Automatic annotation (TrEMBL):
This is Resolvase/invertase-type recombinase catalytic domain-containing protein. Belongs to the site-specific recombinase resolvase family. CDD domains: SR_ResInv. Residues 2-138 form the Resolvase/invertase-type recombinase catalytic domain. One of its GO terms (biological process) is DNA integration. Pfam families: HTH_7, Resolvase. Keywords: DNA integration, DNA recombination, DNA-binding. One of its GO terms (molecular function) is DNA binding. The keyword DNA-binding applies. The lineage of its organism: Bacteria, Bacillati, Actinomycetota, Actinomycetes, Micrococcales.
Length: 205
């Protein structure tokens, strides 16, 4: 059972030292700390992906200073924590005092998951309201976005965790062929989906 640390900053100008000191203070050995410079909004973080898929094994602990080191999006954080828990790996977030090996830590993660689901439900509700308002005025929005931003993000997340196309398709409701296109970068980028979904959600009478 080994403790591994992950530290991330978004730009070259930012310093990792505060996080590195905190991880060392927790007792994580220097050779077990994985630093990375990558935006939290980016889906491609090779150091974190390597740590999650190739290094951590059952009984290990992932130590971070803040949960947002994993991602800026709550949904992705929850998916990561769920995946690690299913593999027998615990997570400690030092500044938020979250430890998934304890009952209180699991409770905190459950609350985060509930908040994330609430936000997804609110987005879906606003989208439906916008579409209904448009139809009431006789307007017919263009072809619906085939993949929502959340689905697009989750597809990349699950594939990064080593899930098969079929497993990802079953978990997200996206066809396996679409999963394959997303992973081959043949599908339009995430920002395009975000923009299209936002347009539909903000249609006004």
């Amino acid at each position: 059972m080994t403790a591994y640390g992950y530290a991330r900053v978004s730009t070259e100008e930012q310093s990792l030292q505060r996080q590195l000191d905190a991880l060392s203070g927790r007792g994580v050995l220097q050779e077990h700390i994985y630093p990375e410079r990558a935006s939290g909004a980016s889906e491609r973080r090779p150091v974190l992906d390597h740590l999650l898929t190739d290094v951590l094994t059952a009984g290990d602990t992932l130590v971070i200073t803040d949960l947002d080191r994993l991602s800026r999006r709550t949904a992705r954080i929850i998916l990561t924590l769920d995946d690690l828990a299913s593999r027998g790996i615990t997570v400690e977030s030092l500044y938020e005092n979250v430890d998934t090996s304890t009952a209180d830590g699991l409770f905190s993660v459950t609350i985060l998951g509930a908040l994330a689901q609430r936000e997804r439900d609110r987005i879906a509700e606003r989208t439906r309201a916008g579409l209904e308002a448009a139809r009431a005025r006789g307007r017919h929005p263009g072809r619906p976005v085939a993949v929502t931003p959340e689905q697009y993000e989750t597809v990349l997340m699950l594939r990064g965790l080593g899930k098969s196309y079929r497993q990802v398709a079953a978990a997200t409701g996206v066809s396996a062929s679409t999963v394959a296109r997303i992973c081959r970068d043949e599908t339009p980028g995430h920002e395009r989906y975000r923009h299209a979904a936002a347009q539909q959600a903000t249609l006004k009478a």
